[in-house]
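Every protein is a chain of amino acids, and every chain bends into a shape of its own. Below is the pair of lines this work produces for a single protein:
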Amino acid sequence: MNDPRLDALRQAVPGLHLKTDPADLEHYGRDWTRRWTPAPLAIALPGSSDEVQAIVRWANAQRVALVPSGGRTGLSGGAVAAHGELVVGLERMNRVLAFDAVDRTLTVQPGIALQAVHEAAAAQGLLYPVDFGARGSCSIGGNVATNAGGIRVIRYGNTREWIAGLKLVTGGGELLDLNRGLVKNSSGYDLRHLAIGAEGTLGIVVEATLKLTDPPPPAQTMLLALPSFEVLMRVFAEFRARLRLQAFEFLTDRGLRHVLAHGAGNPFDDVHPYYVVAEFDAADEAQQAAGLAAFEACMEQGWILDGAIAQSQAQAQQLWRLREGITEAVARYRPYKNDVAVRISAMPAFLAEAQALLGEAYPRFEVVWFGHIGDGNLHINVLQPDDVADEAFMAQCGRVTELLADLLRRHGGSISAEHGIGLVKKPYLDSTRSTAEIAVMRGIRGVLDPNGVMNPGKLFD
């Protein structure tokens, strides 16, 4: 591509890896949403923080927008480049930089995959506890950008809780060293937490210092079959009161059916309407007995109809596949996704109203629910029928999302629990954030990105 702006970029960053092949532009210019036609100017693959800074300074001089890019597993359009932006892919910045045994921290570059972080922590006898199904392809930089949560938030919290420090290249090209790994630091605003969840709109994370912890004790994994929607929170309350939960994940018969069709095995002979994958500490006979007692107490109440208990790690993985395999199993239906959150105490009322709303709104569409009940997060996947055109499908789903956003506002919830706002949820940001809050966010963005080069159009216009 003969573009003078790219010639200037090559001069500004000698040796920079640049891609302009049409196949590369399409690959790097989109995420998992697949709603927008990729149209980036080019793909830059920096190998160092210095190169990232030089790219950002070039972007300010040339007034070219930048889209930071990690594993591109996002579901809200946060990594989409559809308007001539330069994609800054961080896949070459994928190394472990340091391990500190005293502080129990791991310092990494942003392009490292979450799975590689898990393995690096395990090699030191420790755990980085943030975890979800896309662990093999998502990157730490993307996890930071969306404050990713996953399947063990009930025990460990979101990404935010595990970031001891960040290095951020701001939209103005300055390199900020945020918090420096300190445990206590009462010296003004903690700018580290502004970058976490900012979706690349304030700058590009070029280094992250991650907290590590002890591995959890041996766990017991159960699959529970439930008779109705109404007993779900009762089972959760019973298990939480008796056990030290590591995870409590929910799916419906529809989700299970798709995963089984995708090759998973069914531990039950009968089909039940609702299922839970529960995982809890089981280091000794007392904890194992407590798990069985919780199960039996719920059975006596009629809240659980059947159950399966993993007897090995392999069986536990098979049970987890029934929950974690849903996203891949329904991908061919091009689902419209909503990722919502309410307080756990508000979950029963919200669930009932949301189920009624979606049942009435989508009489012809299949709706697949699953989620992290233990932390108030639900994933709603509306599957597109083969005989419904893209435009009509998206229009109807968008109208229903407006109603869902109003419902969340009434329950004090969020239209995005862990996927971010990006392009997809931008019209509904005001259901979660007040006008005053959005004004403050705009002001912060203006300070750190004065020329508006960082991921413009995401979060808000």
Summary: The radius of gyration is 23 Å. The mean pLDDT is 94.
